[in-house]
Amino acid sequence: MNLFGRLTEKSWETPGADPTADPALSRPSAASVGLRVFFGIVTMLFGLVTMAYVMRMGTVAMEHGPVSDWRPMPDPPLLWINSAILILSGLAWEAARAGARIGRGLLLFAGVVAAGLLALLFLAGQLALWAQYAARGYYAAANPSYSFFYLITGLHGLHLLGGLYVWGRTVSRLLAGADAGAVRVTVDLCAAYWHFLLVIWLVMLGLLIST
Amino acid sequence: MATATIADDLRPLHHPKSWIGKYVWSQDHKVIAIQYSLTAIAIGLVALVLSGLMRLQLGFPDTFDFIQPENYLQYVTMHGMIMVVYLLTALLLGGFGNYLIPLMVGARDMVFPFVNMLSYWFYLLAVLVLVASFFVPGGPTGAGWTLYPPQTILEGTPGHQYGIILMLASLAIFVVAFTMGGLNYVTTVLQARTKGMTLMRMPCSVWGIFVASIMGLLAFPALFVACIMMLLDRLVGTSFFMPAIASMGKELGYEGGSPILFQHLFWFFGHPEVYIVALPAFGIVSDLIAVHARKNIFGYRMMVWAIVIIGALSFFVWAHHMYVSGMNPYFGFFFATSTLIIAIPTAIKVYNWLLTLWRGDIHLTVPMLFAIGFLFTFIHGGLSGLFLGNVSVDVPLSDTFFVIGHFHMVMGVSPILVIFGAIYHWYPKITGRMWNDALAKIHFWVTFLGVYAIFLPMHYLGMLGVPRRYFALGETAFIPPSAHLANEWITIAALIVFAAQMLFFWNMTWSLFRGPRADPNPWGAASLEWQTPDTPPGHGNWGPTLPTVYRWAYDYSVPGADRDFTPQTQPPGGAGRYHAT
């Protein structure tokens, strides 16, 4: 039954009728529903940060005359290198998914390990980016655009760290001998989460470099 | 996401062996619900004491030396924040949400029990961090519960040293805790309903909690972002919200930040928050009224849709809290219009409650008394909201006691009355004992009449122009002596209501040990939580097999049925059931 049908059901008129099959068979797993709900929350979080970003950018402060105090940041090559690494990490999850689907244990394991290591490399790259900016005098407190840069990359990195926690558990399960079937759902969800964080990152990157 | 889930009974439940595993580090939603509730009530008592201190100062100024102006501001701030966030949100969603959702939809537990447990411990941490702010140098923040910058973090505001940092940190932790809980509530409703429990067979309580949880998940990120940004302004020296400003004769390093930006973020959370508190109360009161009037809830589908529509609309009204902050008149027009539109689904709900009572077989039990009391206070508070929703009426009334009277009626007293009703209603299921009826009725009448004695005169004080958040009125020309007299009487009423709450605590505690054993279904309710094999429900709730649901939750007084209620688990057939509604 579609959502509209569900929400217009006249439940008082139909005692006994059971429109749903056994829910245990027909529903997606709780983890997959929960992850989709979580996507909504994170989208809201970054959407609000974006709103704040745009509003703060447009704030005209009296002490600066009719112009905003907003100063753009440079876009060093590392920004693009990091983004490429995050894309590769997502591709590695796809390889792992394929491995789990066709039952190739080695591909699965290599994919999972590569995905996580690439994500760690991405985080290291982001930290290096912070260090580069700080070395050139772009401190968080020096200008609102710098503040937002650290805030956004920090929030994004924390979400990726959460994903890496699940990744660590998955690796330990694989090392303990779990087969492809046992981790397939987890790998699918991790891949979805990584792609989601990639999309968030690309949108945030667009925001950062365009302003 | 890799947490073990209990979506069905195929997987063995996590069975704790030790006392600590059962009652402290518990993953059972019922234990977590009780932990949440007791913590929320404990911190709520702190806020209640603070309100008593505020009333003592307002009623009898120049009497209590230990209440200095900065203390008064701290009481105002902590009372507001605790009541709204740490008591009401936590009790209605963390407490009732946790207890009722799995039982009412026929699940064994929340879908992520471990995350659910973490949610409680993060909540407790948030409460402890908040409480710690009472004991740091400078005390808790006195910035007002809305924490508006720039004054929030400026010297001169009480608690600007450490109190504000702890407050912001505590709120951020609370949001993390709520997110973990809310994710559970929403996913459990979507994914773990038992066979036959369609969305439109869920009781209104579950609908209210479900929609409020979704709203919380979408609104709390705004508070989270605002807190983090303010923390950065305070600790790192960023200028998200802080404009160039001189404080105590010296120029601070800030420049160009936007205080209005904070207000937008805060109220983008703050207004939905009103409904995050109200919607579970709406849902629960619908069930209380239906059960104790022995009648199906009038217009069930309309009630559900109204909950959903109110939830959606409440994201488009936030700036009605900011009329006096200065905004484009067209924005004011937009937000006034959207605010008044919310009155439509809300009025539908009120009419439907009244129509459920109409010709019902009304049993004036204590839960029903509280439900009817809610109807009074909610209609009252809702109507004064129509005044404040209009820009031109709001501007003179803003920051007066009229606002205090309005929001205490509509989102303070009303949900609290529902919470009391709900505690009395489900207490027999939760504890297996009955409470003392006489004490409970005294508690109701003193509370109900008392809150009117407290908050009704505040509307008049507000129209006189008595400002809120003032330590003392002093010799102010436009404030007549009668206002001072009213303040004294409000304080006396508040102290009496305060004392009546002690009756409640005594009744609950005494009945826990000495109350008579309760019937498994003392009210003759049809919804699923009353049909558990054990009372209180055992671990896993349902014994060896999950229940199957055959009907909606409101089959009361069905013509031809052998009892005046038909449980959701009763298959059709036998006595005639069909009736046109």
Describe the structure in your own words:
The complex is a heterodimer of chains A (about 210) and B (about 575). With about 210 residues, chain A is an all-alpha fold. Helices cover about 75% and strands about 0% of the residues of chain A. In chain A, α3 packs antiparallel against α6 and α4 packs antiparallel against α5. The radius of gyration of chain A is 22 Å and the shape is flat. The model of chain A has no long low-confidence stretch (mean pLDDT about 90). By secondary structure, chain B is an all-alpha fold. In chain B, about 60% of the residues lie in helices and about 0% in strands. A two-stranded antiparallel ribbon of chain B has the order 1-2. Chain B is globular. In chain B, about 55% of the residues are buried. The N terminus and C terminus of chain B are likely disordered. The chains are: A mainly alpha (about 210), B mainly alpha (about 575).
Short description:
Chain A has helices at 3-7, 23-26, 30-58, 77-102, 105-135, 144-175, 180-210. Chain A is mainly alpha-helical and 211 residues long. In chain A, helix 3 (30-58) packs antiparallel against helix 6, helix 4 runs antiparallel to helix 5 (105-135) and helix 4 (77-102) runs antiparallel to helix 7.
Q: From the structure provided, what is the oligomeric state, counting identical versus distinct chains?
A: heterodimer
Strand content of chain B: under 5%
Please tally the helical runs of chain A, counting DSSP H or I stretches of 4 or more residues: 7
The number of helical runs of chain B is 14
Helix content of chain B: 55-70%
From the spread of the alpha carbons, the general shape of chain B counts as globular
The shape of chain A is: flat
Rg measurement of chain A, Å: 22 Å
Distance between termini of chain B? 44 Å
Mean pLDDT of chain A: 90
Share in β-strands of chain A: under 5%
Q: Could you list the spans of chain A in which at least 5 consecutive residues all have pLDDT below 50? A: none
Structural class of chain B: mainly alpha
Q: Strand sequence of the main sheet of chain B, in spatial order?
A: 1-2
Query: Span from first to last CA of chain A?
Result: 46 Å
**How many whole angstroms does the radius of gyration of chain B measure?**
24 Å
Average pLDDT rating of chain B: 92
Number of strands of chain A: 0
Tell how many strands the DSSP assignment of chain B holds.
2
| Element order of chain B: H for helix, E for strand | HHHHHHEEHHHHHHHH
Largest protein-protein interface: A-B, 55 and 68 residues
